[in-house]
């Protein structure tokens, strides 16, 4: 994986959603995680962060967006369902990025949206759970920057040599 990234959210109110975001960030190799304007109970967060990300992933609680500090050359990317957002499958992720998602029942605040270098959206009919949106975003990043082989033009099942054409089917004799 090239570059670095962080994952976080603004205004979370449910500890289990933060636990999922932390676990997802840890699983995809995030360099850090953060929240803005969220004060959640650590014990409740640990119930869904079953990977114990707190021992592997720096986590920053920012009381407000004004108090948030990102590493130098880190690009802030908002994940939000807005009309002018870039569809995630068409987005070229920055090498060094911090992804910020909105709260469970709401959107990223206008100051946060204004500070984002990019706003991306997952092209769905309606908003997804914030933890699921974090996972989809980081999976998309891993496809772009991971060391995966190119996708084949034709899919075959594992261990299957391919389909052989049969001749004479449906003929008697």
Automatic annotation (TrEMBL):
Region annotated Disordered, chain positions: 154-173
Signal peptide coordinates: none
Domain of life according to the entry: Bacteria
Annotated tRNA/rRNA methyltransferase SpoU type domain residues: 10-139
UniProtKB keywords: Methyltransferase, Transferase
Listed Gene3D superfamilies: 3.40.1280.10
GO MF terms, alphabetically ordered: RNA binding; RNA methyltransferase activity
Pfam family, one: SpoU_methylase
GO biological process: one example: RNA processing
Protein's recorded name: rRNA methyltransferase
Organism: Algimonas arctica
Lineage: Bacteria, Pseudomonadati, Pseudomonadota, Alphaproteobacteria, Maricaulales
């Amino acid at each position: 994986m090239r570059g670095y990234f962080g994952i976080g959210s603004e205004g979370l109110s449910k500890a289990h959603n933060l636990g999922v975001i932390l676990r997802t960030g840890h699983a995809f190799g995030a360099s850090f995680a953060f929240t803005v304007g969220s004060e959640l109970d650590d014990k409740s967060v640990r119930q869904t962060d079953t990977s114990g990300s707190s021992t592997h992933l720096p986590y920053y609680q920012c009381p407000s967006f004004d108090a948030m500090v990102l590493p130098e050359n880190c690009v802030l990317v908002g994940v939000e369902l807005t009309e002018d957002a870039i569809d995630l499958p068409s987005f070229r992720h920055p090498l060094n990025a911090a992804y910020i998602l909105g709260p469970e029942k709401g959107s990223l605040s206008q100051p946060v949206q204004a500070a984002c270098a990019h706003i991306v959206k997952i092209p769905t009919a309606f908003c997804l759970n914030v933890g699921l949106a974090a996972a989809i975003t980081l999976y998309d990043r891993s496809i772009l920057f991971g060391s995966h082989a190119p996708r084949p033009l034709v899919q075959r099942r594992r261990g299957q040599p391919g389909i052989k054409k049969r001749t004479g089917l449906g003929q008697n004799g």
